[in-house]
Structures are given as C-alpha cells and as structure tokens.
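Running this now, will post back.
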Amino acid sequence: MSEPRKFDILVVGGGMVGSALALGLSRQGWRVALVESSERQVLLEAPAPAKGVDDFEPRVSAISVASQRLLAELGVWEAIVAGRHCPYQTMTVWDGDGTGRIQFEAAELQARSLGTIIENRHIVRGLLAALAESDVELIDGVKVTGWWQDEGRPEGLRGIELEDGSVLAADLVVAADGAQSRLRQWVGLPTREWDYDQLAIVCTVKTSQSHRFTAWQRFSPTGPLAFLPLLTEGGDEHFCSIVWSQDTEEARRLMALDDDTFAGELERAIERELGAVEAVSRRFAFPLRQRHAKDYIAPGFALVGDAAHTIHPLAGQGANLGYGDVRALLDELARARKAGLSAADDLVLGRYQRRRKGENLTMMAAMEGFKQLFARDELPVRWLRNTGMRWLNQLGPVKNRIAAEAMGLDA
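Update: finished.
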C-alpha cells in the first residue's frame, strides 16, 4: 500500500448529508476530505426551467424548519431556495377507509411554513457550490474500493483505498454512502432490518387544480399516497411529486398501466382532491426496507444518514433524520476541537451515538406504528383510528405540539 495522504476527517459520500457535514466540519477548522463517486461537474449542472412533469427530478425531500436552520447556518439555504422549491403551509392527512382527518396549519404554529419541498439535486448543487469555496478537498469521480486500519501505528490511522490506487488516511472516517453502505459492511457494523413487502412508486404529476401549498396524504390498507406540492420558476401551482407506497403485487400492477390509466387510478386514490391528473412523468419504483445499524460508531469511524438508518417514506422524515445526525456530530466535534481532543476520541463519538440513536429509533418506531395501524382493516380498529384522528384534530394545542416536534418548529 502506498503512503497515505492524511486528513483529520474523511467523509465518504457527497450527497445531501455528507456534503453538509463536510462543509460544517471545514468551518470548524478541521482538515477535511470529501470523497464522491460522481463527477462534480455533473452535479453542478443547472437544470432547465420546469415547464412539464418530466422537467422535475423524481427524488424530492420535505425539508423541515430544523433542517433549514442547519443549512442556513452553513450559509447555503439562501442559494438552495434561489432555485425551484415549494414551501407548504398546510398538511392534510386522512383515512381512505373512513372519515378521520387531521389538518396541520403553519399559521396555528406562528410559522411561515411547515416545511419546504425541494428536489434533491438542488440541495446537493447548493452544497457543492459552497464546498468549492471552502477548504474541503473534494475528491470526485472515483470509487472507494477498500477500508483499512493500521492498529500497529501509535496514531491509530485508518482510511480508504480508491480505485485509482491512491490511499487516504484520517483520525476519523465518516460513512455517508447511503443505505447500502459498503464502508459500514467493511467495518463490520451489523444492522437490524426487515422488508415491508412494498414498493414506493415515485413520479411527478400535473393536476387540474392548484395544490394550494398543501402536502396531502391519504392512507389505505395497502399503503399511503402522498402528493407533495411543487412550484415552477413561473409560480405554477399545478405540479406535485407523488410517493405511492403499495404492497408489492399491487405496485407492480400500477407500474404496468399506461399513463392515462395510471392517472385515473391516482385520481381515485387521492379522491380527486386536486381534480384531474392531467399528466404523469416517467415512473420509478423502489423496494421499501427499514434498516437500522445496531451501532453508529466504531473506533475512528461513524455513520450518518441512510448509512445508519432508513425509514418508511410515509412521513417524509428521511433527509431530516440525516440532518439531525449532522447537527449532533458537528456539535460534538466542535466541543472536541475546543477541548483539544482528537476527532476520533471515544467519548466524543459515544456522545454522538447516544444523542442520535434514541431519537432515530423513536421516529422509526412511530412510523412503523402508523403503518401497522392503517394496514389493519378490522371494523373496531377502523372505528378507533378514525375517531382518534377526529378527536386529535379538535385538540389544537396537542395537535400543534405534535406538528412542532415533527417539523422542528419551536412550539
């Protein structure tokens, strides 16, 4: 093995979470390298203005107020929202097999919005533009081929090997390389996981009625359907990103339909809340699997984002949990730097794990509970959940407390 290039911290994975972490660490004064397999020039390309359903990226995120604050502190939020984005003021959730309905309003929380729907590429683009002006060394267009740790050295170096033959070393390596994290596997951090036996269908649609800056979600026994509002540069309010989670067999049937028939199925599934579905983009489907690493840390190593946990998309919290990881790790490493400690200090990493594990598990358990509750079709269960939704909708302070916690708002 060639002599490695040394950094304080290596971040592997330049997506929304890894890029934010690398930028924040650099601002603290750490010497940071960010490794990303994609070419930065491709990621920095500005998308064309949106005129139709095929102009939007199918992958979007509902960025909470707490995550917005983090991105603002990193100095990138203003650049991100200079592009396409859609803040939503209302969230409406209802049971497709009953009369239960809950509506959350930003105005009731004295907030401008409950969150913002943004295409993932706009977030990454804004972060990469800031990284180009930072001290982070961005190593792009190259894949990681191996992990190594030299416990024989006094400094306890560890690092990665790249496909071009180069070797990088650091006190701390952070894996932000996604749900199928190879680094997590190489380091030997096991996961608890299970398959939902569902596929999530994602695409962009145009509707005859405005989305009214509302995120819509209808539950059915075979899975939830979300219509997330989008906005063109010209302010057209008739586009939505959909995430339709369905049992695998039903999802495959829906994927096989032609666009007009699929649009008709969507209209019925959303109970024509937005009128007719006039256009549908190319559809994608991916399997849903809950995954959680038993440990987020190992000596000189940490997991963040999807590398540590993946969650059912029914609440749109995946990106926000990742940004929660970033916030906690940045806080702990800032304390370490101030105290003159190594980035790999066991106590520092232990505090990060304690802060994030419980919160992530709580959110994952809540989402699993919601999924199981709405999957039950027995009459008593249907009556209880619909009665409960109506009851909760009338309890303003309780309902708003729940919304504030979920959206990262100050209640």
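The longest strand covers residues 191-207. More later if anyone needs it.
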